[in-house]
Design a protein that fits this description.
The protein has about 325 residues and is of the alpha+beta class. The chain has a domain of about 210 residues: DD-peptidase/beta-lactamase superfamily (Beta-lactamase, 3-Layer(aba) Sandwich). Helix content is about 40%, strand content about 15%. The protein has ten helices and nine strands. It has a five-stranded antiparallel sheet with strand order 2-1-9-8-7, sandwiched between helices. Strand 7 and strand 8 form a beta hairpin. The termini are far apart.
Length: about 325
């Protein structure tokens, strides 16, 4: 055969460029699976803090939106101390408005009640809402991240450091499956009056009704009532979950799932393992709390609420 003609050569080039473009689109689309993120898992008896299972659980990895548990913990702390209320009007910062999806759709300078930001961060996992909470409390992302890290240390999260309020990947923004389970336990025991937000399948976030990113697991696992999902490419599909059956509460965390179904399947295995291992008649002491360091400059926090009084507190508080 002779040399390809100019028109034919042009067609080859166009076909090649088209295939390259298709490859780029596929690469840039939201990934359905994540194969590269390291796997880690931790299971605890929430009543006692006893470790029931640990797999790579103290390796520092990307927590993704599990980070928002700490943002919400500090928001609840501020409310309980009287520094904020659910009705506090928050002015959205430029930093918060510039956050990428998942988003509530906040605009810089907009004013919105704190309750709606909490709902959006907890249920929809809205990055802009979480950042708006952090910026309002501390004045900047860096200052809030520093407070998050200090609070983590005070709660016994020995391997965690935060750089932002929402969990988007950043150098040094790392945690462990063990630490995130500790944080989940503190959320449940320290703030039972707010904990119900994590089990809502949908909620009014002021600007929109938002759907829970964890609703499939909540609907499929008996006794599940929280807590938080997370996903980024470097993190994989993460989840800290809590479930109660027959007076036994298990908290577990999985990092590095390859998809939502895979993550949920692993969590089912972990919680099932936890319920098999946990004693039915375990003593239920108050979970320990580390005294706040000198930087706190406020009255010491109230002690954790013992498990027996939590249900009453949750029932009385509806928001």
């Amino acid at each position: 055969m002779g040399e390809p003609t100019a028109p034919r050569m042009g067609q080859y080039v166009r076909n090649f460029l088209f295939l390259v473009a298709l490859s780029l689109v596929a690469a840039c689309s939201g990934p359905k699976e994540s194969a590269a993120a390291p796997y880690a898992a931790f299971v605890m008896d929430a009543r006692t803090g006893e470790t029931l299972h640990s797999d790579n659980a103290d390796t520092r990895l990307h927590p993704a939106s599990l980070t928002k548990m700490m943002t919400l913990y500090i928001a609840f702390e501020e409310i309980e101390r009287g520094n904020l209320s659910l009705d506090t009007m928050v002015t959205v910062s430029k930093n918060a408005a510039a956050q990428p999806p998942s988003r509530l759709g906040l605009k810089a300078g907009q004013k919105i009640q704190l309750r709606y930001l909490i709902r959006a961060a907890a249920v929809k996992s809205a990055n802009d809402a979480a950042s708006a909470i952090g910026d309002h409390i501390a004045g900047s992302q860096d200052k809030f991240a520093a407070r998050m890290t200090r609070t983590a240390k005070a709660l016994g999260m020995k391997s965690t450091s935060f750089k932002n309020a929402n969990g988007l990947t950043a150098k040094g923004h790392l945690s462990t499956a063990h630490d995130m389970s500790i944080l989940g336990r503190h959320l449940f025991y320290d703030f039972p009056q707010y904990y119900n937000i994590f089990s809502r399948r949908s909620t009014d976030a002021g600007m929109a009704t938002v759907q829970n990113t964890n609703r499939k697991f909540l609907d499929s696992y008996k006794g599940a009532d929280g807590i938080k999902t997370g996903y980024t490419g470097p993190a994989g599909f993460n989840l800290t979950a809590s479930a109660e059956r027959g007076g036994v509460r298990i908290i577990a965390t999985v990092f590095g799932g390859t998809s939502t179904p895979h993550r949920n399947s692993k969590m089912t295995e972990l919680l099932d393992l936890g319920f098999r291992k946990a004693g039915r008649n375990s003593r239920q002491p108050r979970p320990p709390i580390t005294p706040m360091p000198n930087w706190w400059h406020k009255p010491k926090p109230k002690p954790m609420i013992c498990p027996q009084s939590q249900a009453d507190r949750r029932r009385r508080f509806v928001w």
